[in-house]
Amino acid sequence: MALPVVDPSQYDVQLSEKKATIEQQFAEFTLPPMELFESEKTAYRLRAEFRVWHEGDDLYYVMFKPGDKHQHSRLETCPMVSEPIQQVMFKLLDYLRPNELLRRRLFQVDFLSTLSGELIISLLYHKPLDEAWTEEAKKLKEHFGIHFIGRSRKTKIVLDQDFAIEKMQVAGRELVYKQVENSFTQPNGGVCVQMLEWAQNVTQDAGGDLVELYCGNGNFTMALAQNFDRVIATEIAKVSVNAAQYNIEANQVNNVKILRMSSEEFSQALQGVREFRRLKQSEVDLSSYNFSTVLVDPPRSGLDDETVKQVAEYDNIVYVSCNPETLQENLKSLTQTHTLQRFAIFDQFPYTHHLECGVYLTRK
Ligand SMILES: C[S@@+](CC[C@H](N)C(=O)[O-])C[C@H]1O[C@@H](n2cnc3c(N)ncnc32)[C@H](O)[C@@H]1O
Q1: Which residues have a Cβ under 8 Å from the Cβ of 271 and sit 6 or more positions away?
Q2: Do 18 and 66 reside in the same domain of the chain?
């Protein structure tokens, strides 16, 4: 991965520049005052992936020059990653260097940590993983006392669990989330908490029912369910849907149904264009819902045209976006029927040009 240069003395200046860029980019809309949510200046990133380099007996992490896959340098420190990752990442290489079985054809190490202090490490290989590897990896696991996963083509060996349990304090309440290795979770935990509190705040008087698309492991769902009578949340990735089911139980939320459907399929179901057996199996009668609000948190590609049309059907829209360009494009349509009431910038990715936006719109 291309790593940002972490320089806390530059943080405030860079964030004001990002804010100014967004204000300019969205100047075509009538904007409410921008709300700005800052990140921790170091140790803010809960998950990270590192390429490892082999040079004779040496083994080290490399960082690539942004935009140039051929130029890399040795990584000696990594102040952006969370404390649990920082404590282990270089000690891990010290352990692996003299261990032929564990180091041979290792090309990447992925870390997933939580605010609650858990850590899972995945070792990615260009070789099949056998019994001998597993025995050696068990000793590695014992040594560090954390969870390890070995991955190679078509193989995943789990020692001894492939998920972490996150615990976040959101507006005075502890929320519990199962986070599974190699599936989507918000990278910046501190900023994620602020996003959840903001979304909870903007929808506090919405009432009625909520429909949510791209719900992942139920990150927003768990926090927002209390503001609504009932919630339907949809997601395409099976692993995330299963985690969301777990999170419903873990948080004792009793007004939410999670469905495994793409946003495109769900839009068709809502419009009554197509019937889906999955809805019947889950005993969901969409016509019985009184949806006041829709929440979308799509991938970088934003909302497709059908989903934009569907989203415009609701009185209130919460749109969380990791790509200002697609947000801007989608807002061109949505602001024809809705007014921008709130606009928040969440600095999920300090020292880079990336950021997360949250907007709240209500029907004109
Ligand atoms: C930016 S993540 C947001 C997840 C969640 N809201 C959270 O805060 O962790 C986007 C999610 O959309 C899902 N996704 C991607 N394309 C989709 C589609 N066409 N239909 C439904 N979900 C999709 C991904 O699997 C991913 O979980």
Answers
A1: 310
A2: no
